[in-house]
């Protein structure tokens, strides 16, 4: 029997599946004929399939609502999209079209929202959750949004100092706030507690001293986010229960609190056989909240999530052509692709993130084990089995073949453009700092001057497609 790549996949996975199939021996993704796109646009390119965003949002809403009904839960579920995950206009507009609320992380996010308002893509009743480190500029932007009429803007305090900072700005109306509980870190982490949020043992005291009798603020939400993501294990449920315990204690003293925010961290498929079990974990979440509220005799909160990667990750792919094959010794063969992996899927390099990798064509060819190299001159610009802990087995091809081999990395829609800095954008849209040059003048005196200013603002809005 021929050891074709197709046979290998058929023997290893339930294929077709997860949006992948073959049409005339060529890969389709979410029904898109990738070979046709290659023919039309050439490689390399990124692609995003917008309807996948809507179906992900719908799936989560359905599963939460199913659990809510089954458990006779007396609160609602609200889906928010975390914009930092992928800020591009078509993506955020698609999330809004599917009734997602938004979560922001920096002052620049507010400019995007104001732009969306001017285009009629968002209405003033949409909930906007403000996370992240609150600089004065960010707080001023949030107040600007509230002045424009966004009536459900909630400032989630990342530290106790942020309350003082907000009040110093003399907000014209009572402001609605949330508290972010800093979560414990997994044992492999270099830290015990996340730097994001307020340590759980300080929250009650802070609430009683600074919030409870304070008529300038109204506390509505308790928030927590697990840096390690939502995983059905004892560690996750321990932190979940800790946050619920805090929620209950505050709720008994303070009625306006009525929202429990589980943050982001829903995983996506990074293998064809990934099976996360969304339904059972969502059911457990709703059930645990319900049981705690019953035993503590408090009303059940509305549940919020801020899924980023889950919303957009699986909607995207990046497609390359193999330019050349290089046999460097008996066992090491390279497929050199027509771009850089460092620049296009930086998480593969930085945090050893895995993405689904498939050839687009040549599925009937025999396969072999290879490493994939980028065309940047950096020796770390590669993707292989050892580092990625997976077999990189691909159809055999040679540089001399008239038809080149094309490859796709799939489910790459989250964070990759911001981290690689597409067109000057940055993670959380934090501007690139100005560049200062120091040199000696003719007299031997040291002089310094600004060679290039900070990059951000309008240019970034343009790059992201808002202008
Ligand atoms: C506060 C907050 N919410 C939501 C998210 C989204 O996380 P994810 O993309 O894993 O869903 C993040 C990511 O860093 C975050 O910091």
- The CATH homologous superfamily of the largest domain is named Alanine racemase
Biggest pleated-sheet summary: 8 strands, parallel, barrel
Q: Estimate the global geometry from the Cα principal axes.
A: globular
The total number of structural domains is: 3
**Strand fraction:** 15-25%
Q: What gap, in angstroms, lies between the N and C termini?
A: 57 Å
Number of strands: 22
Mean pLDDT: 95
What small molecules accompany the polymer chains? Answer: pyridoxal-5'-phosphate
What fold name goes in the CATH topology slot of the largest domain? TIM Barrel
Overall CATH architecture of the largest domain = Alpha-Beta Barrel
Radius of gyration: 25 Å
Question: In terms of structural class, how would the helical and strand content be classed?
Answer: alpha/beta
Fraction of residues in helix: 25-40%
Helical stretch tally: 16
Which strand order spans the largest sheet, edge to edge or round the barrel? Answer: 5-6-7-8-9-10-11-12
Question: Could you explain how this protein is built, in words?
Answer:
- Helices cover 33% and strands 23% of the residues.
- It is globular, with a radius of gyration of 25 Å.
- It contains 16 helices and 22 strands.
- It has an 8-stranded parallel β-barrel with strand order 5-6-7-8-9-10-11-12, surrounded by 7 helices. Strands 4, 13, 14, 15, 17, 18 and 20 form a 7-stranded mixed sheet that branches.
- The chain folds into 3 domains: 5-42 and 314-413, Lyase, Ornithine Decarboxylase, Chain A, domain 1 (Beta Barrel); 51-308, Alanine racemase (TIM Barrel); 419-463, no CATH class.
- A hairpin with a 5-residue loop joins β21 and β22 (446-452).
- It has helices at 5-12, 34-41, 51-70, 89-97, 107-118, 136-147, 161-168, 200-211, 234-253, 278-296, 309-312, 341-344, 346-350, 385-388, 416-420, 458-463, and strands spanning 20-23, 26-29, 32-33, 45-48, 77-82, 101-104, 128-130, 153-157, 175-181, 217-224, 259-261, 302-307, 316-327, 333-337, 356-359, 367-369, 371-373, 382-383, 393-395, 406-410, 435-440, 446-452.
- By secondary structure, it is an alpha/beta fold.
- Pyridoxal-5'-phosphate is lined by residues 82, 85, 103, 131, 225, 263-266, 306-310, 414.
- Pyridoxal-5'-phosphate (PLP) binds next to β12 and α11.
């Amino acid at each position: 029997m021929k050891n074709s790549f197709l046979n290998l996949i058929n023997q290893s996975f339930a294929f077709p599946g997860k949006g992948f199939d073959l049409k005339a021996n060529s890969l389709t993704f979410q029904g898109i004929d990738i070979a046709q796109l290659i023919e039309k646009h050439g490689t390399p390119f990124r692609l995003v399939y917008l309807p996948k965003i809507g179906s992900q949002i719908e799936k989560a809403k359905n599963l939460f609502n199913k659990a809510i009904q089954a458990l006779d839960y007396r609160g609602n579920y609200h889906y928010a999209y975390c914009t930092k995950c992928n800020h591009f206009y078509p993506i955020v507009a698609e999330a809004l079209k599917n009734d997602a609320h938004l979560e922001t992380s920096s002052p620049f996010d507010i400019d995007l929202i104001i732009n969306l308002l001017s285009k009629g893509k968002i209405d003033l009743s949409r909930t906007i959750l403000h996370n992240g480190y609150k600089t004065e500029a960010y707080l001023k932007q949030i107040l600007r949004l509230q002045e424009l009429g966004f009536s459900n803007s909630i400032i989630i305090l990342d530290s106790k100092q942020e309350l003082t900072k907000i009040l110093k700005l003399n907000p014209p109306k009572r402001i609605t706030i949330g508290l972010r509980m800093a979560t414990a870190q997994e044992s492999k982490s270099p830290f015990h507690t996340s730097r994001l949020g307020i340590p759980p043992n300080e929250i009650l005291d802070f609430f009683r001293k600074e919030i409870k009798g304070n008529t300038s603020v109204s506390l509505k939400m308790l928030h927590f986010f697990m840096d390690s993501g939502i995983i059905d294990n004892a560690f996750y449920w321990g932190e979940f229960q800790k946050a619920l315990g805090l929620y209950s204690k505050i709720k008994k003293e303070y009625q306006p609190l009525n929202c429990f925010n589980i943050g982001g961290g829903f995983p996506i498929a990074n293998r064809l056989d990934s099976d996360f079990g969304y339904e059972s974990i969502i059911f457990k979440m709703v059930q645990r909240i319900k049981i705690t509220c019953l035993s503590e005799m408090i009303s059940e909160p509305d549940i919020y999530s801020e899924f980023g990667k889950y919303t957009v990750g699986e909607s995207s792919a990046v497609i390359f052509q193999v330019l050349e094959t290089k046999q460097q010794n008996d066992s090491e063969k390279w497929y050199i692709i027509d771009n850089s992996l460092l620049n296009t899927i930086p998480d593969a390099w930085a945090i050893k993130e895995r993405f689904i990798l498939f050839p687009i064509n040549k599925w009937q060819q025999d396969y072999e084990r290879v490493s994939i190299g980028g065309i940047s001159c950096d020796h770390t610009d590669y993707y292989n089995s050892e580092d990625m802990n997976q077999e990189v087995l691909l159809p055999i091809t040679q540089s001399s073949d008239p038809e080149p081999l094309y490859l796709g990395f799939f489910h790459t829609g989250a964070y990759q453009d911001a981290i690689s800095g597409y067109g000057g954008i940055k993670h959380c849209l934090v501007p690139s700092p100005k560049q200062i040059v120091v040199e000696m003048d003719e007299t031997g005196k040291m002089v310094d001057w600004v060679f290039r200013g900070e990059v951000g603002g309008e240019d970034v809005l343009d790059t992201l497609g808002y202008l």
